[in-house]
Amino acid sequence: MISYLGPLPNTSVCLGAFPTSGALLEWFMREINGDTSQLAYSRLWEATTFDGTGTVMVYPQLSSSDGAFSGIGLATKRIDLFRAVIESLTFETRRIIDECKRTKNGIIRRVRIGGGTAQSPEWLQLRADIMGIVFESTANLEVSSLGAAILAAKEIGVYSDILHASQAMVQVKDIYAPNFKIGSRYEDMYQNYLLQ
Questions:
Q1: In this structure, are residues 133 and 182 in contact, taking their beta carbons and an 8 Å threshold?
Q2: May I ask the CATH architecture of the domain 2-194?
């Protein structure tokens, strides 16, 4: 975990990553699902209920060949495996956010997210539920470009400082409030996940 002062007053930045998250999802879509198309991905999301009642767990440590599925039985379906993959990746996000809380000795009330994963409303809702905090998706998903534009707007004098530039240029598209009932079901799964 890398932590440093943020660009705005009273802010900080915590950087954490799970480098094989995209690779795990891609592997599942290719090797288990047999179809990597956007339509196949959308169909899996539509068919899946994320309510904390699943029995399959995925331990996604692929880079060290320590990845594993557990809780699989004769009744396990492909959709159960998909749900477990998404849940495990969400648990990894929570692990990073929990580490950020410990590093900063503080609380996190909301997470603003852009990029590719911000395009999945279902995944944003799952993140809010599992983490118990509000998730906001940005209108402009290209957050790196937006950050560069904010800095440029400040430098050429369109805005007096970064705070005013970001307030004017960053817009929230959607807000996902946590469902604490679902979150409480996921809490036991998450604690068990951490034991592996």
A1: no
A2: 2-Layer Sandwich (3.30)
**196: which residues sit within 8 A by CB, 6+ positions away?**
57, 59, 68
Contact criterion met (CB below 8 Å) for 86 and 126: yes
Write down how long the chain is. 196
Q: Count CB neighbours of 165 within 10 A.
A: 19
Strands 134-138 and 110-113: parallel
- In this prediction, residue 60 carries a pLDDT of 83
| Predicted confidence (pLDDT) per residue in 68-114, tens digit | 899 999 999 999 999 999 999 999 999 988 988 888 777 888 888 88
CA distance 147 to 170: 9
Burial 49-75 (b: 16+ CB within 10 A, else e): ebebebebbbebbeeeeeeebeeeeee
Determine how β-strand 2-5 pairs with β-strand 12-15.
antiparallel
Amino acid sitting at position 147: G
Please report, for the chain, the start and end positions of each structural domain, with discontinuous segments joined by +.
2-194
